[in-house]
Amino acid sequence: MLTPDGRPMAVARTFKPRRRRMSPTRTAAFDRLMPMYGLDVEGPSTSTEDIFGRAAPVALEIGCGAGEAAIASARAQPEVDLIAADVHTPGIARLLVDIEAARLSNLRVIHGDALEFLHRIPSESLDEVRIWFPDPWPKPKQRQRRLVTESIMARLVPWVVHGGRLRMATDVEDYAEQMLEVCSAHSELQGGEVERPSDRPITRFERKGIEAGRAVTDLEFTRRGSN
Ligand SMILES: C[S@@+](CC[C@H](N)C(=O)[O-])C[C@H]1O[C@@H](n2cnc3c(N)ncnc32)[C@H](O)[C@@H]1O
User: Fold this and answer.
1) Whose CA, among 77, 78, 94, 185, lies 20 to 30 Å from 54?
2) Does residue 135 have an active-site annotation?
3) Which residue has its alpha carbon closest to ligand 1 atom 13?
4) CATH number for region 24-223
5) pLDDT of 62 above 60
């Protein structure tokens, strides 16, 4: 949902800011690499072509943690430009270091709320949105913080191109049900549960879930229509 001047409306945040101290080396790496690979949440309007210097399919990963999946995916798919977002500073610092080490030119990082970044790029800019193992927010009074809700999908879907995909995975059973319900109810989305995609790298949270014996559900929805 946008305000009259095109900015996202204030809603409950899907994360809780965590303050964790970083080592001086990590802090120095963050400060050095953020201007090279980082995208500010606030700033002038831009486009994915300007960001990456080319016209290519673009994916946004919301909640990338320390970026293991983002790095693996950017390496495996050099033809896709990937924007990976998280609010967790040590995770972003680690991702920045890994981008430099792997010399990846198709990966950029948002240190902040991915949803707030959207106003910087035109709607229908994203070929894919990836939400891998979002925070489960299990208590009833926390549910409003979940990332896959009706109101957040209403904000997000306009940024996906027609024919583009929204891909999700979770190991929380009632969250998988919620994803299915919310996305099936969206008038512009069609899709449902899918087999584990072979191109989805394993993530840190997925590994933890598997170790704890939890089953993983993958879902994929396509935005209807064509450009
Ligand atoms: C449970 S972790 C999963 C991390 C990673 N995807 C994995 O599977 O290992 C969810 C992450 O989403 C991030 N997050 C939640 N809402 C976000 C938002 N609106 N924008 C960016 N990151 C967000 C949190 O900070 C957290 O690091």
Assistant:
1) 94
2) yes
3) 63
4) 3.40.50.150
5) yes
